[in-house]
User: Fold FAD-binding domain-containing protein from Dietzia cercidiphylli.
Amino acid sequence: MVIVGGGIGGTALACGLAGSGLEVVLLEKVAQYHDIVRGEWLSPWGMQEARRLGVEDALAAGGAWEIREWVQWDETTDPDEAGSVDLTGLLPEIGGPQTFPHHQVCEQMALQAADAGIEVILGASRVGIGRGDRRQVHYTGADGARHSIDAGFVVGATGRSNIVGRQLGLEMDLTVHHRGAGLLVDGLDEWPSDTQAMGTEGDVMFMVFPQGYGTARLYLNYDPAHTRRYCGPDAVTEFLESFRLRCLADRGDYIADHASPVGELTVWPSMSGVPLGDFVWDGVALIGDEAGSCDTVLGTGLSSALRDARHVRDVLLGPDWSVDAFSEYVRERGARMDRLHHGAHIYHELFVEFGEYAVARRRRARRLMSENDAYQVTGLLNMIAPELVPDFGFSEFFTERLLLETR
Assistant:
């Protein structure tokens, strides 16, 4: 069988199939893993999936760092009254979420797969998928030559590139929610190393995710109409200066004054993709963002990809690889993504909308959450598996009540 895509979902699946007796080839287009900025936060329920796939040690070797506290700042409250949440208690056997350099974890998982007998081919570009009873997979190797593999089964794990899905005719309904910018920095030795921060003020939503030893990934989300923001020769300076926010007080000044870039500043449109058709066919299955993606503001993309990999792994370890054998994967993924899209909608409406109306709505929502813990239910999507979140959090009544317009 062939796995197309050596990101975290593809490499985790390869590791999960190691020792099964299957002949597995993993194709990855880059010859050497490099920083891609996004995909560096794994929820506790994602860590559960990593453990089930046997890649927990590879995460640690790649630099995984536990986050134990979450502080939510906002322009509607005094900086010293920002609420903090202990992230370690919901799944005590797992602890808090993990942050890490995405490329280093991919590299460690690929090494684990190779050490276990999986054939890992880096620098495999221009991958083509054939049709028929046996899939012909074609690719251009690092040597520049064209190669072919007769595959009994193909798994597409190429993320939002959707290389396998597009060749099989799968279209996505894409929606752009906002734009994002990200930068890896060091020099933040005085920032609490186990504390992630998020907040909204003016026309930006910010995120700070420590990765240990003074290193952190900084993110800013903003209106999608601002297509040239954080571009040009002064983009890094503009980006860091955006953290001088009233809601952060001297913490924002500390970031702007002390953060030193150690990677490239990257900007992108943050979008979700809903598949307009099947993502499992005879002899082919898609996992991760290639099978449909959620707004990145929720931060559950990697957790969902690992859940997909575990589902597909379990089927491939059995005797039946028919489309029907994947019916539970298709059903569970559909229900899961419905909930994740719902949660992402609420997060976006509360934290990535700007202006007087958005401020008033956020102030009212914060009051509701302080008066009744039930209004914080969608926040559980970042921590525990979607199917374990109480059903009322996805009801129309709950959503309308939480996001009700304030006049």
